[in-house]
Design a protein that fits this description.
- The complex is a heterodimer of chains A (about 50) and B (about 250).
- Chain A has one domain.
- Chain A is built from 2 helices and no strands.
- Chain B is about 75% helix and about 0% strand.
- In chain B, about 40% of the residues are buried.
- Classes of the chains: A mainly alpha (about 50), B mainly alpha (about 250).
- At the A-B interface, helix 1 and helix 2 of A face helix 2, helix 3, helix 8, helix 9 and helix 10 of B.
């Protein structure tokens, strides 16, 4: 059970860290290209909806 | 969604058959999905990732305030203290303690606050629908509505200039890693973890964004701004420890 809780904590940590990394990568994309927030949202939602 | 419907024999279009449910679902797709994402990325665009994610930490405080207003009850002591702490933290973050001076672009603060409001809508709007319909149907329809709306504003086939293979890799990671996989990892952990622990771990999002922004985007924070960040994260932790029945 302890191992399961540790695994779940690790999963949650990976998930939330990836959210944070995603935010910073969005920042990098805006700084280095002409991509707009609207286009990136379109990509994000279209990609997810197609799943 | 189609595979899920075929396997479980659960109707995916039933939610559209009743007018109030259909209106709420439409509202969820537009405000809770599309606008929540759009305002968050606008906050990053006009400010930075650290500011945007910290402003998003106001979502639990927003949900508590709206819940109390709707129930016509005052928040309990811990929630009240947490809300005050979160607001004071954001105040320190955007002003660095100076009443007459902003250290963050006002437009970034505006979009950050709107991202927190629409983030709260993402949690609150689908609740009545989830009592009757499978979560996959609600989230799936919300994504489809959001994707259609955003594609009418900025179609995915209008490729921006300046995208290198590395930035394409970043886009791919944002869509499938930082959204899809991250969500699956976090939600699956909730089956085992107590909400308080999960919420505390959830603080890693603004922390990661802040640390990476300092390291890779050369972002600097003053001492009082860092104190503000700690106060906001502490407020989130305090609210996650509040007994559920009082929320």
């Amino acid at each position: 059970m302890a191992k399961t809780a540790r695994q779940a904590a690790l999963q949650a940590a990976c998930g939330t860290t990836m959210w944070g990394v995603g935010g910073v990568l969005s920042n990098v994309i805006f700084n280095t290209s002409t991509a707009s927030p609207a286009w990136l949202v379109s990509m994000r939602l279209t990609g997810l909806a197609s799943l | 969604m189609i595979i899920y419907s075929l396997v479980t024999h659960r109707p995916l279009v039933r939610v559209w058959q009743q007018r109030p449910s259909a209106i709420r679902l439409l509202f969820f797709g537009v405000v809770g999905v599309a606008l929540a994402q759009f305002t968050y990325l606008l906050a990053i665009f006009h400010g930075n990732a650290a500011i945007a994610t910290i402003m998003l930490s106001l979502v639990p405080a927003m949900i508590t305030v709206v819940t109390c207003i709707r129930a016509r009850t005052a928040p309990n002591l811990i929630d009240t203290l947490a809300i005050i702490l979160a607001l004071f933290g954001v105040f320190l973050l955007v002003t660095n303690g100076h009443l007459t001076q902003l250290h963050v672009a006002p437009i970034a603060i505006f979009w950050g606050l709107l991202a927190a409001i629409t983030g709260a809508a993402y949690t609150m709007l689908p609740r009545p629908l989830l009592r009757r319909e499978p979560p996959l149907a609600i989230v799936g329809w919300g994504l489809i509505i959001g994707a259609l709306l955003m594609n009418s504003i900025a179609p995915v086939w209008h490729i921006p200039k300046g995208l290198t293979p590395w930035t394409w890799a970043a886009v791919f990671f944002i869509v499938f890693g930082a959204t899809f996989l991250a969500y699956i990892l976090y939600v699956s952990s909730l089956k085992v973890l107590r909400p308080a622990i999960a919420s505390m771990i959830g603080n890693l999002e603004p922390l990661t964004a802040t640390i990476l922004s300092i390291l890779f985007l050369s972002l600097g924070f003053h001492t009082l701004q860092l104190v503000g960040i700690v106060l906001v994260l502490s407020a989130v932790f305090m609210m996650s420890r509040t007994p559920k029945k009082k929320r």
